[in-house]
Design brief:
This protein is an alpha/beta fold and about 450 residues long. It has helices at about 20-30, 60-70, 180-195, 210, 215-225, 235-245, 265-275, 280-285, 295-300, 325-330, 345-355, 370-375, 390-400, 435-445; strands at about 5-10, 30-40, 50-55, 75, 85, 105-110, 110-115, 125-130, 130-135, 145, 155, 200-205, 230, 250, 250-255, 260, 305, 320, 335-345, 360-365, 385. It has 14 helices and 21 strands.
Length: about 450
C-alpha cells in the first residue's frame, strides 16, 4: 500500500467485537492493515488499546477509509491539521468532503482542538473563523470553507460497556415481552432528568396518538411541562383538530370506537376550518379550536414543527410543504433538547434521528418491531425501542408523570372502559368461526364480576 496512516483505538475491543468491525471496514474499503501494538486490559472492566497502520492504494481511498473507521473511534495518532477547500457551487460539497456522524467530533485548528457544534450525521464540516459546525448539503454556498480530509478530525464514540456471552431469555434490545411498567418508569425518569437539567423534551408523534385515544393524556403531559417541542406531520395535527371539532379521528367516534355517518368528511372539514382561521394559533385565539394537543401547545407557548408529505390533504397552513425548509425548521428547534420520545411514526422518527446528536437519549414506541429497530439501523445507535400499543404507553406514562391525571367525558381509560354493562360491545378484527361468541362470553363473565 502506497499511502498509510497510523491510528489508535481504545475500548472493550474484543468482547464487544469493536476491533473486528474496524478490521472488517478496512478490508471492505480495499485497504490493508498491520497491528503495531496491542495492549490488552488485565481485568474485566479494563479497556484495551490497539495501534495499527492502515493503508490504501491512493490518497482518496485512504481518506475515505480513515473517515469510515473514525466512526468506531479509530483516530489518527498524528492528526495534523485538516485540509480545507472552498465550495465552488451552491448546494454541492467539494470533492473528498468529510462525511460526518452524529457522534461528538472535534477539529484541530491552529494547534488546538475545537468542538464541532450540533453534530449531525450525513453532513459536512464548515469552518467559520475559529469555529466548526456541521452543515447539510442543501445549505452549502459557494465560497464556504469545507473540510476535505480525515486529518485534523477526531471522533469520540460512545463508551461500550464490557459484555459477557451468556444464555438468557428476553435479552434482545427490542422485545414486546419486557415488563412495560419498568420501561415506562425508565422513560419517565429520563424526562425528569432532562427537565431537572434545564433541558427540553422533544416528542415526535404520529396520528396513532389520536387514533388510540391517547390525545387527552398527551394534553396532560403538555400542561405538566413534559412536551416542549413536537415534530409531526399533517396527520397528527389534523386528526387532533378533527377530534376537538367533531369528536372523531378519521371519522371514528373516539368515545364509542365506531365510524359515524359522514365521518369521512370530518378531517378535510377540520383542515378547511383552520385554513379559514389562518393558522392553528389563530384558530385558538379566535376560539375556534378549544381543546386537544395542538390547542394545548399553543396555549402553553410550546413549539411545534409540522412537515408534510405528498399524500397530505389540505394541508394545514402551518405545515411545511418544502421538505428542505422543514428540515431547517426541525434543526432550529433542537437547541436545548435533552430527551426525545418518538411515538407511532416511522418516517418522522427516522428523519429526527438523522439530525439528532448521539448524545441525546431517545426512545421509540411503536406496535411494529420494524419501526423501533429501523432507527438503530439508520445510525441512531442511542435509540431504544419499545414494542407496544402507543395509546396504552402514553396513558401509562402520563399516570407516572402526573399521578392526578383523569380522563374527561368521552375519553375512557384505554385499559378499562368504565361505561355501564348495558353499553354496546364492539368486537373488531378478523376472528375465526365462533370466536365472536367466545369473546362475548368472556367479556360478559368479566362484567358479571
Amino acid at each position: 500500500m502506497k499511502y498509510t496512516e497510523t491510528v489508535q483505538i481504545t475500548g472493550h475491543l474484543m468482547d464487544s467485537g469493536l476491533l473486528s468491525r474496524v478490521l472488517d471496514d478496512v478490508r471492505e474499503y480495499d485497504g490493508d492493515y498491520s497491528i503495531d501494538q496491542f495492549d490488552v486490559g488485565h481485568d474485566k472492566d479494563d479497556t484495551s488499546t490497539v495501534r495499527m497502520t492502515v493503508g490504501a492504494d491512493d490518497e482518496e481511498s485512504l481518506q475515505r477509509l480513515l473517515m469510515r473507521i473514525q466512526t468506531k473511534g479509530a483516530n489518527l495518532v498524528n492528526p495534523g491539521e485538516p485540509e480545507i477547500t472552498e465550495a465552488e457551487t451552491d448546494g454541492v460539497f467539494p470533492d473528498g468532503f468529510y462525511s460526518t456522524t452524529n457522534l461528538p467530533t472535534s477539529v484541530r485548528l491552529g494547534g488546538r482542538w475545537v468542538t464541532v457544534r450540533n453534530p449531525e450525521m450525513d453532513c459536512g464540516l464548515l469552518v467559520e473563523g475559529e469555529t466548526v459546525r456541521t452543515i447539510p448539503m442543501s445549505d452549502v454556498q459557494a465560497g464556504m470553507r469545507i473540510i476535505t480530509s480525515a486529518q485534523g478530525v477526531k471522533v469520540t464514540p460512545p463508551v461500550v460497556a464490557s459484555v459477557e456471552d451468556r444464555f438468557g431469555f428476553m435479552e434482545s434490545v427490542v422485545s414486546s415481552e419486557k415488563p412495560q411498567g419498568v420501561l415506562v418508569r425508565q422513560v419517565a425518569d429520563g424526562m425528569r432528568e432532562a427537565k431537572a437539567a434545564g433541558l427540553k423534551v422533544l416528542w415526535v408523534g404520529g396520528p396513532g396518538i389520536v387514533h388510540t385515544g391517547a390525545a387527552p393524556a398527551m394534553v396532560a403531559l403538555v400542561e405538566a411541562g413534559y412536551v416542549d417541542v413536537l415534530f409531526a406531520g399533517n396527520a397528527l395535527a389534523t386528526h387532533d383538530i378533527e377530534s376537538s371539532l367533531y369528536g372523531t379521528s378519521l371519522g371514528v367516534d373516539l368515545s364509542r370506537g365506531r365510524g359515524v355517518e359522514h365521518g369521512h368528511e370530518h378531517h378535510i372539514r377540520a383542515i378547511n376550518t383552520i385554513r379559514k382561521a389562518g393558522s392553528i394559533a389563530a384558530a385558538v385565539e379566535q376560539g375556534v379550536l378549544t381543546s386537544g394537543v395542538m390547542h394545548a401547545l399553543v396555549r402553553h407557548g410550546k413549539q411545534f414543527v409540522l412537515v408534510g408529505s405528498v399524500r397530505d390533504d389540505g394541508p394545514l397552513p402551518d405545515v411545511y410543504t418544502d421538505v428542505v425548509e422543514g428540515q431547517r425548521a426541525m434543526r432550529a428547534a433542537l437547541d436545548g433538547v435533552g430527551y426525545c420520545l418518538m411515538a407511532a411514526t416511522m418516517l418522522h422518527s427516522v428523519a429526527t434521528g438523522n439530525i439528532l446528536p448521539a448524545s441525546v437519549p431517545l426512545t421509540c414506541i411503536d406496535i411494529n418491531p420494524a419501526t423501533v429497530t429501523k432507527l438503530a439501523d439508520r445510525g441512531s445507535t442511542q435509540a431504544r425501542g419499545i414494542v407496544t400499543d402507543v395509546g396504552l404507553f402514553v396513558e401509562h406514562l402520563t399516570h407516572e408523570l402526573t399521578p392526578d391525571h383523569t380522563h374527561g367525558p368521552g375519553h375512557p381509560h384505554p385499559l378499562c372502559d368504565h361505561r355501564s354493562v348495558s353499553d354496546e360491545l364492539w368486537i373488531t378484527g378478523p376472528v375465526h368461526a365462533g370466536g365472536q361468541v367466545t369473546a362475548l362470553s368472556t367479556v360478559r363473565s368479566l362484567t358479571d364480576r
